[in-house]
Amino acid sequence: MNESPDRRTGRKRRRMQRVTMQAVAERANVSPSTVSLYLRRPEAVAAATGQAITGAIDELGYVPNLVAGGLAAAASRAVSIIVPSVRNAFFAETVAAMQAELGKERLQVMLGHSEYSDREEESLVRTALSWAPSAIVLTGQSHSAGTRKILAAGNTPVVEIWELGGQSIDMTIGFSHDKVGRTAAEYLVGRGRRQLAFLGARMQEDRRANTRAQGFVQEALRLAGLHAEIIGNPARAGVELGALLLGQALERVPDIDGIACSNDHIALGVLFECQRRGISVPGDIAVVGFGDLDFAGSCIPTLTTIRPPGDLIGTEAARVIINHVRGDRSDSHCVIDTGFRLVERQSA
Amino acid sequence: MNESPDRRTGRKRRRMQRVTMQAVAERANVSPSTVSLYLRRPEAVAAATGQAITGAIDELGYVPNLVAGGLAAAASRAVSIIVPSVRNAFFAETVAAMQAELGKERLQVMLGHSEYSDREEESLVRTALSWAPSAIVLTGQSHSAGTRKILAAGNTPVVEIWELGGQSIDMTIGFSHDKVGRTAAEYLVGRGRRQLAFLGARMQEDRRANTRAQGFVQEALRLAGLHAEIIGNPARAGVELGALLLGQALERVPDIDGIACSNDHIALGVLFECQRRGISVPGDIAVVGFGDLDFAGSCIPTLTTIRPPGDLIGTEAARVIINHVRGDRSDSHCVIDTGFRLVERQSA
DNA sequence: TGCAAAAATAATAGCGCTACGATTGAGAAT
DNA sequence: ATTCTCAATCGTAGCGCTATTATTTTTGCA
CA B42 → CA B36, B53, B105, distances in Å? Predict the structure, then answer.
């Protein structure tokens, strides 16, 4: 019987919500424990009781308080996802797919953008841990020492996505960017191209793009003893940059005949610039992209590109997280190679 | 003195974290209240005490528990953002900008995707409220009755973004899509175009695209008595769809000379398809897009388009939310028109 | 019908933190 | 010296919920 909890001391305290589980319990003539149990495991409560509770919830318009629930349960139903930027279509796709799956389990997505900075990522991880999330999802496998340390200190499950082959923290879902680069090189070399270049943006920050570039160069060398040039630019990847980089490529490798791009936006820029300069694609230069973005199948010429399974990475990440939340630890320290696919079109 | 809280009853209870504020307080020889105060308002604590606390925090590796904090404070430092899809570059930009600003204030972004469904949005709003967020951000102004009801029942601040002119729930930041459509019509008519069409995707679900289309049609009629055709498709907006829609437009309006698109992807598809069919742009057909996406300045011809200020919407939304969190209610029920800008390029 | 086993429900004791009022101590004003 | 003021710090009592144990009710079966 605490009609007025602070009656004795005269203190005021701001309440969070008007309708609490207590109120639902009273309305349904059961104890709060039963309401809580019903909400978490309906099958553990008798059908009639369940109906009474559902009725009370509807009548009162009860909204459960997940903050209180998270505190009591020592783990919140939040999943923290940290990506370089959701402006990047790759990560947007993964985040959207993951949210769709996690949402079904009433897991809330918390989003952070590292902007390709390890320092920023560390700061985001620190904040994320403050929420006692069910899992933390990080992009890639290169993290600051501090990030690794604070993650090792806790026991929050960690899923690293979009990269493979490095040192895993816990669970890993992605593909080999080295192989992507090698696949592009192999394809171009196989098509008889000999003067190769890799065009990329933000190669300092974007380790994965860098890995693709290295794989490309090494495979060109290994397969045919060719020297492939890497032409980078610190600017953000974009169509305009692609046009610019083509210009640089033509200067550095005058008789260039094969180009791989760190992403499709750059490849599209290359296609446009080739058209402007009257360079035939793939006649004079073959172009391979990365991403298989929206326009790849419609541009002129259509773009041969490597398709990373952004949505699959998202759904798989969601799957292992959901399993973990349910208590199934069998995915612990798993490494899932989602692979990728070369999509042959006209440009190469 | 409660070294072992459950000693008497012998109950086990899982603890959330090893280092609590209590531990920090003991280490720094102050009370927990002071640590809490220091963390929330450092200026209210003496410098020497602050240093002692900072030292203790570092030594112990203390991570504050925002879940507990949120419960005690009756409001969590979370902001729930619900957009149709983060795959859409418009919303990705806004979400990224908003997260950047909110992150500075240690406000956590919680993300949900409605996939253009009012029902789904309602479900997401319900879940969002369970987190007692500092604010809820919704896209657009058309919501289900249920959504409006549950939002009205609480007192969580609501920010509606990307649309203006409808019935506001609370704060509104966006621009008029009707004006966007009218601007496109005015521009094309002003350039002497007479056979007009508006090409759009998902016109049923995407009310804003629909509003732009209606504005376009009405302005064409008002200015020059012209009948503009609306050519829609339930598929997702994309470059490929643009090509398809151009074909339909040519059938429906054989001597078409002016096209407005519901977004730049569709416009790009139109450009590509025109190139394939040997139709000159803007010679034969003028094309106006919407979005000013990455490629708009680089494609052939460069795309005349209407630029919605996605990042500005995000930063403004963050600003009013931060003000509200700080206790400044002056933005309550504000309506901020961010406007938009027609970017003239070659295609029209 | 009686009794053990199982099912359903209830009572208890916090989770870690913050808001509020209370208290302390140092300097200013009298 | 005494009172007053203000800044700095502390003690208390929950926020709303869940995990655990305890109790009650129902069921199965002889």
Answer: 9, 10, 14
How many Å apart are CA B265 and CA A146, to the nearest integer?
A: 41
Residue among A178, A170, A177, A176 at smallest CA distance from A138: A170
- What is the spatial distance between Cα A79 and Cα A128, in angstroms, rounded to a whole number? 9
Summarize pLDDT for B300-326 with one digit per residue, the tens. Answer: 999 999 999 999 999 999 999 999 998
The single-letter code of the amino acid at A320 is V
Give me the residues paired with residue B108 across strands: B78
Q: Could you give the dihedral angle defined by the CA atoms of residues B70, B72, B75 and B78, in that order, rounded to the nearest 10 degrees?
A: 0
Cα separation, A337 vs A165, in Å, equals 10
- CB within 8 Å of chain B, chain A residues 51-110: 61, 63-68, 70-71, 74-76, 78, 85-87, 89, 92-93, 95-96, 99-100, 103, 106, 108-110
What is the C-alpha separation between A257 and B324, in angstroms, rounded?
A: 58
Cβ of B31 < 7 Å from strand C? Answer: no
Look-up of token digits 């490597």: A306
Q: In a 3-state reduction of DSSP, which class is residue A288? A: strand
> Average pLDDT over chain B, rounded to whole?
93
Cβ-proximal residues to B305 (8 Å cutoff; 6+ apart), any chain: B264, B267, B288, B289, B290, B291, B292, B293, B296, B342, B343, B345
Q: Is the CB of A44 under 7 A from strand D?
A: no
To probe the interface with B, which of A122, A131, A281 has the most B CB atoms within 10 Å?
A131
What's the CA B72/C1' C16 distance, rounded, in angstroms? Answer: 9
Cβ–Cβ below 8 Å for A71 and B265 = no
Please, what are the domains in chain B?
Answer: 1-64 (1.10.260.40), 75-175+311-339 (3.40.50.2300), 177-307 (3.40.50.2300)
| 3-class secondary-structure state, position A290 | strand
Q: Is the CB of B71 under 7 A from strand D?
A: yes
* pLDDT at res. B4: 35
